[in-house]
Amino acid sequence: MIKILDSTLREGEQTPGVYFSPEIKLAIAQFLDLVGVDIIEAGNPAVDREIANAITKISHAGIKAKIGAHSLCSIENVNKCLDCGIDFLGIVFSVSEKRLQLDYNLNLAAALDKIVEVISYARKQQDNLLIRYTPEDTVRSKIENVIEAASAAVQAGANIISIADTAGYTTPFLPNRSISYYVKTLKSELAKRELYPQIEVHCHNDRGLALANALDAYSANADIIDVTVMGLGERTGIVDLAQLLINLIDIGEENTKWDLKYLKDLYELVSEHSHIAIPPHQPILGKNAFTHYAGLHVKAVSKDEELYQSLNPEILGLKSSVALGTQSGRSAIKQAIQQIGRAELAENPDLVAKILQEIKEIAKRGTPIDVEKELPAIVDRCALSELIT
Ligand code: HCA
Ligand code: CU
Question: Rounded to the nearest whole angstrom, what is the distance from the C-alpha of residue 375 to the centroid of ligand 2?
Fold first, then answer.
């Protein structure tokens, strides 16, 4: 069964302007646990003292999910992670030729020594620790380097190898540039050496393909997929948690442990504290994801929602709704009047026509109309003028 690693608290906090306090981090972690993710990557304690405190707090909060910390490839950083009481340690070090040369000034052999030294050290400190090694920018690194580094890391004690599409470079349509190619190649090459780590994927969204690539990796039997709430992260972020879960269930992954009803509250919490609004047209949890607007649509869904919906909002504990505005027809007005408990007025065609006209005028000024909050007053006004005329 596929595992989900949520990195809202680490990758998500790498969104410019985003910072979650330790209390909010804990609340987010508790919601992620209720949703049923397997691993929560809570941050790199070397970045800031308060981040270290937050990871420690989350590690000791009785959360079912494994709690992870993120580390650069240094013993000092690893020690800071282990001090937080974690179950999972991610160590990142690129073996791309460009990075080795330009940034680290190391050859491959020296890089492998460093990776082995740090991973063996971490393994010695904590027997039951899950250790992940990520050759950063895996998919733009020479595959031979990746295989060597991954083999060395597993032999030194790593349980998981992550394929990082750090710059969102992969695409499912080019066989040698697809993440499924990397998953298959790494699995088969390591198996030849009798090494069987779990394979994780971390897909950035630079080309808008993060979700497609994650599903491509899933089809190649990846074991773990990285996500964040709202797809937050560096630049254009990574895979969105809600979108991945919905699609995994849709393509046949048996849902034995995810509770999608907690997603709405989780997304609202993250949106509030990241100060980033959820776009209304965002799939799954955007305000308009299950809202019908144009007259033709509203009329059809009043008979059967499936006519304009391929997902059932009930799986998220949500209901579909109707929006009112210039695109509305009589049917939408009638439904909305019923929704606010004034069903008897819906039988008066002149009144319905009047309300429709008024709604259109208001909407042309660019004001959205909230059925619950605004419609009652509009209905009262129109009903009164009906009585007078
Ligand atoms: C980063 C880059 C990273 C690392 C992923 C990982 C990436 O350190 O910010 O450690 O598994 O995209 O490669 O997020
Ligand atoms: Cu990343």
Answer: 45
